[in-house]
Specification:
Blueprint lengths: L2 H36 L6 H6 L2 H26 L2 H9 L10 H6 L5 H35 L2 H17 L4 H16 L1
Amino acid sequence: MDEASFIRQRVLVARILATAFLLTNFFYLWFGLFLRNQNFYLPAPHIIEELPLAGVRAIACVFSLAALALAYYFHSFFLSSSMVNKALASPKGWLRPPSPKQVTQYPDLEPGMIVVGRLFLTVTLVSSALAEAVGLYGLLLAVMVKDFLGFYALIGLASLLMIAQFPRRSMMGKLIQTLQMRKGM
């Protein structure tokens, strides 16, 4: 497998993962709208009356903002050139050099390209999962607190973040450019 097909494969897998997370958010939206039309809520009415609704809203909003900030930071920081350099120099951890199996699986690729591909997929998976958590918090607001304005806002924010961070070939291209600059040093 040459570099171009490896890049296409990694970007395609990352896009499939990100699309699945985005579709999950749309499922949350559909489910919340369905529950709203059914007047069905998870806790019984007497439990809802005993819940500190302002506290539940505040906790959901704080967790959502933290997850959004973490997803943005994770995506920005881990796709930076300094992180790629660290990933290529790292002897252990999830940024470790490729295993002998991976090296034999991709004999035409240099080991740094495999590390960059792994980094790209990991960042896509983690940042999409964090953004999806925000949509889940919105669904919890709709189900437990009947706060549909917060539900729509959190689903919208999560979806916007996923769309903004959707994997593009140019993102992978920046990582490869950093890899090539490192080789030239």
